[in-house]
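Input record (one chain):
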Amino acid sequence: MVVTDVFEDIYQNFCSQELSLPSLPDIAMRVQKAARDPNCTFDSIGKVIKSDAALSAHLIRMANSPLYMSRVPVTNVRAAVHRIGVPGARSFATTFALQNLFHSYSQGLNRLFREIWEDSCELSALTAVLATFCAGFDPDDALLAGLLQDVGMVVLLGALADYGEDFPAPDKLHDGLEEWAPRVGQMLLESWEFDQRYIDVVKARHDWMRDQSDKPDLADIVTLARLHSYSGKKRSENCPLINEIPAYKKLPVGLLTEQMSLQALVDANAEVDQIRSMLRG
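The corresponding structure, as predicted from the sequence alone:
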């Protein structure tokens, strides 16, 4: 089996609709719909969220995260929605719903699904904290963007699991996933009718020299957070230095460490760890 050929075949089957892309879970769709209503209020979107106990608990946890520094803890959905706002509630409902995608019934792929989920939670936490240093960016948007960037990998692996047990060992899948994940992720977010800024994030995966305009965007923040996350790891061997990429030059992220990682994120490590733990559930 040639791995890249298999993933290309899966991609073409998605294009021709011979394979169906995953649907956005019902609770996330209902929250999205409520948030788009011009008459949406904290109470109306809170009512939708309270219909799902697990989502309610997730929202309360996130409202008590370091992204919303407060001495008074949130203990109910109404207070959580007031603290984070309607856009934040919509983002967190989607992050909660995404957890179900990062999971496989195939024993041979389950470890890889889990590794991708762990990496995505780390990237999401780093991106959210990094956004707090960059004026004009919403940490809630950044958190969701970080979690979405690897979604194409998850969809590809889910489709691969349907091929049965005749697939390569997980360590042989890397190149095929890297090549096809951005295209599949883009297709998925388009089918979910996500904003273009999130689609751009998925397309930008590992495109270190991406330079769309002089003005930084959400994809630049995720790119910078991902490159920081690779610092000191084997993954960094074929990557540029942080100060060489356009995203770094556009964003006011401060000093670098001697290891060429972002000092601001190193200093905020406790906050990053707390948000990552909350996302992991």
